[in-house]
Amino acid sequence: MSIAKRILIINGNPKPSSLSRSLAERYAEAAVESGHSVELIHLSELQFKLSLDLGYQVEQALEPDLQRLQQAMHAAEHLVWAYPVWWGSVPALLKGALDRVLLPGFAFKYHPGNSVPEKLLTGRSARLLVCMDTPPWYFRWFQRAPAHHMMRRTVLEFCGIKPVRISEFGPVLPSTPAQRERWLAEVARLGAGAQ
After folding, report:
1. Quick one: average pLDDT of 19-35?
2. Please, where are the H alpha helices in the chain?
3. Residue 46 and residue 141: Cα distance in Å, rounded?
């Protein structure tokens, strides 16, 4: 039995019914059954503008749902992101949430004379539950896993979140119900251990 953790699970798939959602919910169920504190957020149920209109030149007020998301991220010890790979990256809904929430002063901070920012979300770990129609081996070796590099290195580790571990599920399109059940069982094991 692992030490109880505060876990935030974010489903970044905009579709109301998806494998990403099922994986997020199965992880949450197993984590709760093992005594962890869990908050599950489906980005598709939040109300916010996707675009960071002027970058960081002008402060764009956060909608109440994004304020709550920031608070949940700040309170969490372990972050779980469930999403599909679309066009080698993450869905626009997830990218928009990252743009809007991971702001200077919350996720990172630049200091005068230093081009490397201070990481403000240290002390947290992450798990990525990534669904794809591309075979995972092909995504890694031929496409060079751009979505993984983006989420792990240029987003989460940039803000101080590490380690970031990745679980791949695919190819989804031709998968059988038995295969999906195996994936859900794998996620339940991860959730029980808050991994």
Report:
1. 98
2. 19-33, 64-75, 92-101, 136-141, 146-149, 177-192
3. 35
